Structure formats: C-alpha cells, structure tokens
Amino acid sequence: MRIAVPVNEKNMETTVCPSFGRTPFFLVYDTQTQEASYEDNSAASSQGGAGIKAAQALADSKVEAVLAPRMGENASDVLVAAGIAVYKTQGDNLQENLKAFEEGQLKALEETHSGFHGHGGQ
Amino acid sequence: MRIAVLSGKGGTGKTLVSVNLAAVAGKAAYVDCDVEEPNGHLFLKPEQVETREVTVKIPVVEDSLCTACRICTEFCRFNALALVREKLLIFEEICHSCGGCTLLCPQKALWEKDKVIGKVEAGSSGEVRVLSGIMNTGEESGVPVIKALLRALPELDREGDVFIDCPPGSACTVMESIQDADFCVLVAEPTRFGAQNLSMVHELVEVFHKPHGVVLNKVLEGEEDPSEEYCKSKGVKILGRIPFDRHLGNLNAGGRVVSREEEAYRTLFEGLLQGIRKEVRHEAAAGA
C-alpha cells in the first residue's frame, strides 16, 4: 500500500510535520516493498488553499492512505473524493507511526479543522 | 470631502470619532466599512433603512461538459478548484471571484452564479445619511462589501462631507476603505501598544500617499503619551485631543452620539472638524 506522510526533512529519521498543506515534504512509502521517496510539497508556498493543492498532488500520485496529525476540511474533502483514507498520527516520530500504521494501531482522522484561511494571505 | 477614520487596533475610538464628526458636519454621510462588526448604526440609529444584498461571482461546473483538462485547476492561484477522479471540486469560500476559470474553460463547462456574502443598509439619522456594510458570518473577505459601499461615494458626495469608518488594523479591507479618501484621520491611544499600532497605519497611509493627521484619544493630562511622542518624532500633524473622560465614555457606551448630547462635546468635535477641513484645504492647495 502506498501511503503519504507530511515530514519535516527528507530522511527516515525525521519527524511528522504538524501542517498538512504547508509541510515542506511528503514521504511516499510503500508498505510492501518498504521503498521510500520524498516529494517536495509544491503547495507549501501557495497564497491560499495549500491543503487543497497538496491533497490534489497526493491524489494524482495515487497514494492510498495519508497519515497526519490534523487536517483542514478542504484538504480532507479532496482526499475523501479521491478515496484516500486518512489516519491520525500519534506523536511526531515518523518510524513509530509507520510501524503503528502497519500494525493497524492508528485510528482514522475524523475531526477536521476549518482551516486558517485569510490569516496571512488574503 | 471624504475623510477616512482608521486605527491600528480596535477600540481606539474610530467609531466615536467618525460618528461624531458626521453628527456635527451638518448635511453629511457616514459609511461604516468595518463590515465584520459594523457598529456606527448603534449610535446613529438610522431610520427608513433600505437593504441591498452584496453578491460575488462563484464558478459552477456542468460535469457532463468537463473533460478534466485541468486548465482551471492549474490557473487558480488560490487553489479553489481540484480535480479528483475526473470530477471537478469547487471550494466556494476560497474563490476570490476573479472569473479566470470560467473565462479559460475550453469546453465552456464553467459558468458563474451569484453568491450572497453580505448586505449594505442605507438610512438616515437627522441630516446624516448612514450606510453600513455587513458581511455574513463565515465569509472569507469583506472587500466586496466595502466595494459595494464605496460605489455610493459619488452620490454621497452630493450630501456633503463623507466620513468613512474603517476596519481596524492595516490589512486589505483597510486599504480598500481608504482608497478614495481625500484625507485620513488616525485615531490613537496613549499606550505603547497604541503607539505601535499607530505606526503601522501611519506607514500604510504614507504608502498610499494620503494626507493624514492624528487624533489622540483617551488623553490623560500630565501623563506620558507614547502615541503623541510617536507623532512628534515623525512630524505627524496632531489634529486634536479627546480627553480620558468617564462621562463621555458612559454616554458613548450607552449608544449615544456624545456631540448630540452635550454642548461641550459638540464644541470638541466641531473644533476637530474645523481642523480637518483646514488641513484638507491646505493639502488641496499644496497639491494643486
């Protein structure tokens, strides 16, 4: 299964980024092959709607699940429309979260926030 | 003459100043551009109020015509459009109503609908024409409501002097509100925080090359006033001082127009208005 995680740096020792839309990178990880790649998040510098753009990119790259600590409702709408499941991370340790996901320990992220639109880039 | 009243922060006395200037100006107009929380009408209590809706254009997609070409999603700099599983998603509250997506769609699968985001209320309070902009809760930007208010300016000019009560701060909505003003009145509080916020709006009116002056509010005689010090250090004209006055505060908090209640306050605001008129004439002469 191809999953994506917002991460702060391009390595496996890094931490989960608290922001989905404006994370600097996404780790794209294949749970079968354990292959990892890091995508620059082109939405990070968006004037607005970063979550939508980031979610669009993940939908286009055919990931099947996203692990994130929280998410705006617009980004979530895009992922839901794309049939991508979203799971809530526990703490910011990347490898522990990957392990927890593979063991089925992570719960679905059910609450979304209404976003921070207009605070900084109206 | 169009006078914009602004301040770097809320609660400095913008509405007190603009409402009372309008009230002592004879035939005049008061325009409340603080569309997120308009409160001038609470003081002026306009009558025979007429309401007009303010709308913006939002794209609508006809799914059967959309070929998922992504021209619209790639064009939108606010990312208000997404394309997932060949279906276009439109995020109305993110859309800035530029119309670009509709214009660019090669299949003509997009068109525009009106979305109500607020209203303008117009009424009269004695000799003062009162316009209030009201943005609906949850809307992204008050700018379209302010634009709708300011479209009435040419008509309001015929009424007499126009006083524009701006939103607090120095963001887009304030820039929109002062754009057509002849003069800006900056209201400041005698605190360090007040002086800091004054410096922000002062920089803004300088960027817009607007003639301006400061009204010092809540002035305590003999006490340090960081806003006054700021004005002196930057050579900013001080138009007048409103003393820290519990009685004035009580009247104002009770929704009264203080200059309509007591002679002393009428004199205070008349003096302020005369000072502003003199500045505007001076600026007009210097600019000519």
UniProtKB/TrEMBL annotation, chain A:
InterPro entries (UniProt xref): Di-Nase_FeMo-co_biosynth, DiNase_FeMo-co_biosyn_sf, MTH1175_dom
Signal sequence bounds: none
Dinitrogenase iron-molybdenum cofactor biosynthesis domain sequence ranges: 13-102
Protein name (database record): Dinitrogenase iron-molybdenum cofactor biosynthesis protein
From TrEMBL, chain B:
Molecular function terms, GO-annotated: iron-sulfur cluster binding; metal ion binding
Pfam families assigned: CbiA
InterPro entries on file: 4Fe4S_Fe-S-bd (IPR017896), 4Fe4S_Fe_S_CS (IPR017900), CobQ/CobB/MinD/ParA_Nub-bd_dom (IPR002586), P-loop_NTPase (IPR027417)
Classification via PROSITE patterns: 4FE4S_FER_1 (PS00198), 4FE4S_FER_2 (PS51379)
Highest rank taxon of the organism: Bacteria
UniProt key word ATP-binding: no
Keyword set, alphabetical order: Iron, Iron-sulfur, Metal-binding
Domain 4Fe-4S ferredoxin-type residue range list: 57-86, 87-115
Descriptive protein name: ATPase
